[in-house]
Amino acid sequence: MKRDDWASLVLIALNILVFVVAAAGGVSAFDPSSAQLLRWGADYGPLTTSGQWWRIVTSMFVHAGIIHLLLNMWCLWNLGPIAERWFGRAPFLILYFLSGIGGSLASLYMHPATVSVGASGAIFGLAGGLIALLGLRRDSAAAAPVKRFLPSLFTFVAYNLFYGSVTPGIDNAAHVGGLIVGAGFSLALFVGRRRDLP
Q: Which CATH architecture has domain 6-190?
């Protein structure tokens, strides 16, 4: 990660900070209860739709244990700097937050009675945005050196969606919601514009 990819670093730091502060406040670092997660901003239909709409954002920074956090931060560490360089810092942050919100809303719609947390909706949005961007710029000279990255993105998405479909407790609705929002944002940003990859 380059030093100028600081937005990705800040997002990773915020996720880790929330986890550490929550753990210091008594939240289990390995198997937190739903009540503990709700106190720290988890998304949950009966609360979110009763006026606590801020949960669709705060839930993006809450994780259900250290393994959940580490897996998501590993993905963000790998995808974040690439998306930040290709989209630009401000569009990258907009992409991240819109995708995370899209994932939270999809989870809320599909599983309103489930306590939902994690950055995976936003991370899937980065993957969706990158796939759409590379598809739009596949003939670009600047895209040529990174075309080899596209199969890895498809593999990441396909594997995690499959794993989420067969593993209890994984919120695939958030993954799909984030993916769709990310791809849609990328298309809206770049279709018809002569903007190349850096």
A: Up-down Bundle (1.20)
Q: Please state, in angstroms and rounded to a whole number, the distance separating the CA atoms of residues 144 and 35.
A: 49
Which residues have a catalytic role annotated?
A: 120, 175
* Predicted confidence (pLDDT) at residue 11 exceeds the cutoff of 70: yes
Q: Do residues 99 and 122 touch, judged by C-beta distance below 8 A?
A: yes
Domain residue limits, the chain: 6-190
pLDDT at position 16 is 98
Q: Is the pLDDT of residue 84 over 70?
A: yes
Is residue 138's pLDDT more than 70? no
Identify each DSSP E strand in the chain by its residue range.
none
Full-model pTM: 0.91
> Residue 62: helix, strand or coil by DSSP?
coil
Question: Quick one: CA dihedral 181, 182, 187, 190, positive or negative?
Answer: positive
Contacts of 3 by beta carbon, 8 Å cutoff, 6+ apart: none
Q: What pLDDT was estimated at residue 22?
A: 97
User: What letter represents residue 181's amino acid?
Assistant: V
For residue 116, the 8-state DSSP code is B
- For the stretch 92-96, contacts whose Cβ atoms lie closer than 8 Å and that sit 24 or more positions apart, written own/partner, are 92/7, 92/8, 93/7, 94/185, 95/125, 95/126, 95/129, 95/182, 95/185, 95/186, 96/11, 96/122, 96/125, 96/126
